[in-house]
UniProtKB/TrEMBL annotation:
SUPFAM superfamilies: Carbohydrate phosphatase (SSF56655). It comes from the Bacteria. InterPro entries: His_9_proposed, Inositol_monoP_metal-BS, Inositol_monoP_superfamily, Inositol_monophosphatase-like. It is an enzyme of class 3 (hydrolase). Pfam families: Inositol_P (PF00459). Its EC number is 3.1.3.15. Its cofactor is Mg(2+). Pathway: Amino-acid biosynthesis; L-histidine biosynthesis; L-histidine from 5-phospho-alpha-D-ribose 1-diphosphate: step 8/9. PROSITE patterns: IMP_1 (PS00629). This is Histidinol-phosphatase.
Amino acid sequence: MSDTIDLDAAAGFAAELADAARPIALHWFRTPLDIERKGDESPVTIADRAIEDELRARIRAAYPDHAILGEERGQEGSGRYTWVIDPIDGTKSFITGLPLFGTLIALADAGRPVLGVIDAPATGERWVGTAAGTRFGGAPARASGCRSLAEARLYTTSPDFFDAATWPRYDALSRKAAFRRFGGDCYPYGLLASGHCDLVIEASLQPYDFMALAPVIEGAGGVITDWEGRPLTIASGPRVIAAATQELLDEALGLLNG
């Protein structure tokens, strides 16, 4: 077996994984659910675990020498390639009936994300990103080209995801944007890749939350880093910023860190 993966084939396989996840998510969406609390008090449902178990089984069958990292079941295996799964990104949205939750699937090569899928089961939308580009619904996706914070449309998921040290930094920056919006979990990153918003800033993400986002954003011509401007890896986190252009990212980082 070659040490180098066929990335086009892997992207096709990742789309098949997303196809498999969708009906499971939709089966449980807007139904009565038993909700458990994990050690960090975040919620988890039968849908989260069922999706991750299905995707793990398919990855093991197709790429038995690859590692897997998932939100619900942790790390399995080791090696050059790691599949990173968030079965339902936005579980709080999912359990409250908001259709902007997603399934995130990434492939990391030596810790660097090289393939990402953002799939929104309830809306039927999907972004697939690699170095060759990002596609949305089969067509190329492109970031907006916005270069100025004063003109930027800014998203973050929730004020609750910032702490006492990071919220004032975000709040001051966001008030300089054209406008700011809240909510969406992974969905605004897809909107950024398609040119509908320009800047997304988060402060409490895990690798399974952001690994799939990086290839989607970068493949669409945008940029995504941590708050220090460093490229994302599986060891990064928890503070992430995505922007339509390098100029916009530089301005935002200057304010966050100034």
